[in-house]
Every structure is written in structure tokens, then in C-alpha cells.
Design a protein that fits this description.
Elements: H1 3-15, H2 24-35, E1 41-44, E2 50-54, E3 65-70, E4 83-85, E5 88-90, H3 99-114, E6 121-126, H4 134-137, E7 148-154, E8 159-164, E9 166-175, E10 179-180, H5 191-201, E11 205-208, E12 211-220, E13 226-227, E14 230-239, H6 242-263, E15 266-275, E16 278-279, H7 285-296, E17 302-305, H8 311-317, E18 322-326, E19 329-330, E20 338-340, H9 341-358
Parallel strand pairs: 3-6, 3-7, 7-18, 8-17
Antiparallel strand pairs: 1-2, 2-6, 4-5, 5-20, 8-16, 8-18, 9-14, 9-15, 10-13, 11-12, 12-14, 19-20
Helix pairs in contact: 1-3, 3-9, 5-6, 7-9
């Protein structure tokens, strides 16, 4: 492994701005960067996601393994000046660093240059992950050959995320009857009253060990002295158990509808399921392979669940068993973000051991 090359590539990557949704310039750079490597074939789908295919090396294996990262960053991510000092890489302090997720991309690149043997490999670079996994949810999976994959998009190097939740969103629209709040309040029907009645009856927060619920936004009314006609409530629930998520969302809907009936308001509820739960068995090939590689490099794997959405959810939905793995950065989404060089080095070694064991 060439540590200086790893650092240099990472620093080059973060200098290229890719704030969501403006990540096309960085995608184009990566298409050329990976395209120069031996045997590489690049392809982009209609959404702009990039897939780079590498043939097997010193291996007869025909099962492709994928390594995925996202190209975009949060703001402020323009004019990043990486500083390498005392074993870490950080920004100058007025921007993020972009380790989320460019540390993972740099590590994948170094793995490809170091591995002495490997099965067919796909590097999958998705767009617009930060606003809600838009790239992976809109990807053309017909161009993806991976039979298993790893998404390098978490912090600590020993992290292995094996499960993620179903995510149900509820957009609730109440319509009442407007009236003057002082002169004729009895002529009005308050949409805010309907919303508040419902919210007061909802179970929110952590429901159990695998389920949560929340009301995030309430928007209603226009003037202080008017009975409000329109109110919108945005709510959600999540569960590692898909059926439980659906049942809980239905129970929330019933409460929203009951409140409307009690007040005499109209209600419309738009329900969506942008992410569906996945659960990788801890003895599955994708999990066991990386646990072996981590342990070989002196890292104790931390296999766990998360309640947030990741690109792995959509890869799993398309029958590609995929785990999320740490990339060695900290304090992402802040100007204090930094990457730990020793962890990046270790993760390259872990990736090399993954592909060599699969060869």
C-alpha cells in the first residue's frame, strides 16, 4: 500500500466541489480517474450514477463484488483546503472536509491498486445521497452485476451495519373553515385544532427497540386573528420490522382521521415508503467475509443496526446483499470533520483481504 498516494488522492477528491445536487463535475472526474486503471470499463445510467467494472485478476471467480460510495457532500463544501497534520486530514475550518464520503472512494481506489488477486469488481458511485439516497433509489440496476456489496459510508473503521429500517412518511393535510377569530369564531373550523388533537394522541419517540415515530413539521394558519383553514403536518415512523412499520403508520393515520372527524375538518393523508427494511444475517457471506478481513487486521467488528436510511437499503432491495462499513472519518456534516489516516490505511488492508479471500 502506498500511504502517500492514498492521502494525495483523497486530498485531490475533496478539492473538487460536489455539494448536492451539484456532484456531476466530481462524477466526471472519477469516470476518468477510474477509467485509466487497467481493465476498467465505465458506464453511467440515466440519473448520472457511475459504475466502473474491473475483470477478475489472478482468479477464476465469476461472482462480482461491489464497493459503493456517494459522490455528493453537504454544504459548505466549496473551496475545501485539506490539511494533513499529526496523522489526520482536516479542513481549514470554514468548510466541511468531505471525508463523507470521499474517504471511502480513496480507499477503494487504493485497494484496486494493491490487490494481487480479486474476483470481478464493480465500483459504484451514486449521486445525491445526502438529500435522501436519490442516486441509489433512481439507479438503473440492470447495469449492476454485483452479487454482494459494501457501502463505505460510516465513521469508525470497525462498523458493520447489517440492518436498516422501513421508513414511512405521512404528509397530513387538514382543511377547516376560515372565520374571524374575534368576531365570529363559532363560524370557523380550526385546522390547527384538528392537527393538535391528533398530535396529542400520537405515540412519539422510541416506541420499542426497533421502532420510532416523529412529527417533524407543523405548518398552519396565516394571521393571528383568523381561524386557520389549512394546516399541514409531516410525520414519520420507522421500524426494522417492515410489517410493524406499516401497522404503526396505519395507526397514526387512524388518529389523524379521528381528530378531523371530532373537529369537523377535512383531512387528506399521503403515505409513502421511500425505504424498505433489510436485515442481513450475521452469518451471511457478506457479513462473515468482512468480519474475517477485519479480524485478520486486528479490528474487532461491531455488527449492528441503524435507524437511518443508506444506499445499502436500495442495493438490498434489488437483491444485492449489502453491508454499510466505516470509512475512517469523524464529525461529518460539520466544519470540524476530519479523517484518520491510520484508519484509512487499515480499511484499505481490510478491502484487499476481502477481495483476495473472494478470489
Amino acid at each position: 500500500m502506498n500511504t502517500q498516494r492514498l492521502i494525495d488522492n483523497f486530498c485531490d477528491f475533496v478539492k473538487i466541489p460536489s455539494e448536492s445536487p451539484n456532484d456531476q463535475e466530481f462524477i466526471a472526474y472519477l469516470e476518468k480517474f477510474f477509467g485509466k486503471m487497467e481493465g476498467a470499463k465505465t458506464k453511467k445510467d440515466a440519473y448520472g450514477n457511475l459504475v466502473v467494472k474491473f475483470p477478475a485478476k489472478n482468479s477464476s471467480s465469476k461472482e462480482t463484488v461491489g464497493f459503493a460510495c456517494h459522490a455528493d457532500t453537504v454544504k459548505p463544501g466549496v473551496g475545501i483546503k485539506p490539511i494533513v497534520k499529526d496523522g489526520v486530514i482536516k479542513s481549514s475550518g470554514d468548510t466541511i472536509l468531505g471525508g463523507d464520503d470521499k474517504a471511502g472512494i480513496a480507499e477503494i481506489a487504493e485497494m484496486l491498486l494493491c490487490a494481487k488477486k480479486h474476483p470481478p469488481i464493480e465500483v459504484i458511485i451514486v449521486r445525491c445521497e445526502e438529500p435522501g439516497c436519490l442516486g441509489s433509489s433512481n439507479m438503473d440496476y440492470s447495469i449492476v452485476d454485483s452479487k454482494m456489496a459494501y457501502v463505505f459510508d460510516s465513521e469508525e473503521m470497525n462498523e458493520i451495519v447489517a440492518s436498516g429500517p422501513s421508513y414511512v412518511t405521512l404528509d397530513v393535510y387538514y382543511k377547516g373553515v376560515p372565520a374571524h377569530a374575534g368576531m365570529a369564531p363559532e363560524k370557523g373550523i380550526s385546522s390547527i385544532l384538528a392537527a393538535s388533537k391528533a398530535i396529542s394522541q400520537l405515540k412519539l419517540g422510541r416506541i420499542d427497540h426497533e421502532t420510532t415515530a416523529n412529527v417533524g413539521v407543523i405548518q398552519g394558519g396565516e394571521v393571528r386573528n383568523g381561524v386557520p383553514e389549512h394546516t399541514k403536518v409531516t410525520a414519520e415512523c420507522r421500524s426494522l420490522n417492515h410489517d410493524k412499520a406499516i401497522k404503526f403508520a396505519e395507526a397514526m393515520e387512524d388518529i389523524f382521521k379521528k381528530a378531523a372527524k371530532e373537529v369537523g375538518a377535512e383531512v387528506r393523508i399521503d403515505r409513502n415508503i421511500p425505504i424498505k427494511a433489510y436485515n442481513l444475517p450475521h452469518d451471511s457471506k457478506v457479513v462473515k467475509t468482512i468480519c474475517y478481513a477485519m479480524e485478520k487486521n486486528g479490528v474487532k467488528p461491531n455488527v449492528h443496526d441503524i435507524m437511518g436510511g443508506t444506499d445499502a437499503a436500495f442495493l438490498n432491495l434489488h437483491n444485492i446483499p449489502t453491508a454499510v462499513v466505516g470509512a475512517g472519518y469523524r464529525d461529518n456534516h460539520s466544519c470540524n470533520e476530519y479523517a484518520i489516516i491510520s484508519e484509512m490505511e487499515t480499511l484499505v488492508k481490510v478491502m484487499v483481504d476481502i477481495v483476495e479471500s473472494l478470489a
